[in-house]
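[Archive record]
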Amino acid sequence: MNISRRRLLNSLTVALCVPAAAVAQTPQGGPIKLALIEGLSGPFANAGEAVYRNLLWAVERVNAHGGVKLPAAAGGDRLLQLDRYDSGGQIQGALSALRSAIDDGARIVLQGNSSAVAAALIDAIDRNNERDPGKQVIFLNYAAVDPILTNEKCSFWHFRFDAHADMRMAALMEVIKGDKALQRVYLIGQDYSFGQAVLREARRQLGVQRPDVQIVGDELHPMGRIKDFLPYAAKIKASGAQAVITGNWGNDLTLLVKAAKEVGFEGKFYTFYGNALGAPAAIGDAGVGKVIAVAEWMPNVPGAASEAFYWAFVRRFPKPTDEYVQLRMQLMMQVLAQSIARAGTTDSIAVARQLERASVSFAGQTGTMRALDHQFQQPLVVGVMERQGSPGVKFDEEGSGYGFRVVRQISAAQAEQPTTCHMARPS
């Protein structure tokens, strides 16, 4: 961290970052246990730890204001407690962690870094809640974005706070529609439910929005097991593609873009996650003006509230490589605290019914939960990678020297997609 930045952090008083010492009185009730079930080891451990930092800060912020407000009859105000359960990024590991979390008294489960894991958790939680009404669990999903999770597999117990893949693809298409020079694209993704959904939707939306664009490559690769992406990058370059569309994340994205740089691929990358987890540093100058990413928020979103939110996170986690900031996780925790307070109890059904009607505003962003399918509705932004200090790029990503200039802001109404959900609700 440079000296001017450290001085700025030391001098700023950021309202969004309240220290634990600000709690006037420690709540008397026992903590409300939240179980983070995530890959905290294995090939995507960096993504798991980034999630943990965001959730930890969100929990700290709720607790700094006295925790969740509950009446005396329900045990009074209570703090949130975030417990970690390492799934290793595997389905069986996640199911084992779920059993442990329930046995430990957790009734709120948090997960997101795999749609395949999320689908398995939905099934397991549905069975648990039907079999054992005294231990019913709510599942808050912050990143598993396979559209099926709020369509065919929608569940009363599952709430998604990230825009799903079709919503994100529609946002990217707003930029692709304006890229008239683009005539050839290569589709590549991880071979599991989310990666398959991304490529499927890319084909569909290209056919509708840009039927003139030729798909010159379309392939899936094993998730988290490819160490050398040079053969894939060579095929991309040889295909004559002018751009790549990918939903890859974690090391699968970082290694892909590194390999593309090595083989001299000069096309654009339309990505879901090209703005973090090492990708900007890996791409370097080759990505300037070429790497496009979509998110619910980016550090360079204009506005004082957005900038204050960013500085608050940096104040809490000053190490540049820790600066993977996700606004939706703050919104999710605010919604949870709000819903428990409005329910006046921690009873899972009562809380879930309040989650269905939740609405929250924070850091200039407003989001609402759609009761029909439990898909959170919020604005999205699309950014293009540029050097820090360029117009519109005050902040970089993870100390890389590269940030994302916002080129599209898409309202919640524009991002909204239809659903096929037919939800069964408890009587």
In short: The two ends are 55 Å apart (CA to CA). Residues 185 and 334 are 40 Å apart (CA to CA). The chain has a mean pLDDT of 92.
